[in-house]
Write a structure and sequence with these properties.
Strand order of the largest sheet: 1-4-3-2
Number of helices: 1
CATH architecture of the domain at 27-81: Roll
Structural class: alpha+beta
Strand content: 15-25%
CATH class of the domain at 27-81: Alpha Beta
CATH superfamily of the domain at 27-81: 2,3-Dihydroxybiphenyl 1,2-Dioxygenase, domain 1
Helix content: 10-25%
InterPro entries: Glyas_Bleomycin-R_OHBP_Dase, Glyoxalase_6
Order of helices and strands: EHEEE
CATH topology of the domain at 27-81: 2,3-Dihydroxybiphenyl 1,2-Dioxygenase, domain 1
Largest sheet: 4 strands, mixed
Shape: globular
Domain Glyoxalase-like: 10-77
Protein name: Glyoxalase-like domain-containing protein
Number of strands: 4
């Protein structure tokens, strides 16, 4: 959410369903430019995320796939390439 209280609101619910290898839905985190992306990836790794060894990265990918401690995948996007 934007600091002024505007923007999209997000609610995350808990489910007992096992984590899927290729989930139908995942979260994208927009991190600004490449430097912001790298800093956010390092911050998330420090909080317990792990890098996903994903074999489907396109050349010049603007995203990094991570997983939370329970294995739920999400992406950190470099939005500075637009």
């Amino acid at each position: 959410m934007h600091p002024r209280g505007t923007g999209v609101q997000l609610s995350i619910g808990f489910s007992e369903t096992p984590v899927q290898e290729r989930p139908r839905v995942h979260l994208d985190l927009y991190a600004g430019d490449a430097q912001g992306q790298a800093a956010e990836v390092e911050r998330l790794l420090g909080l317990g995320a792990r890098r996903v060894a994903w074999d489907s990265y396109p050349p010049g990918a603007d995203f990094v796939v991570l997983a939370d401690p329970e294995g739920n995948r999400f992406c950190v996007i470099d939005t500075g390439r637009g």
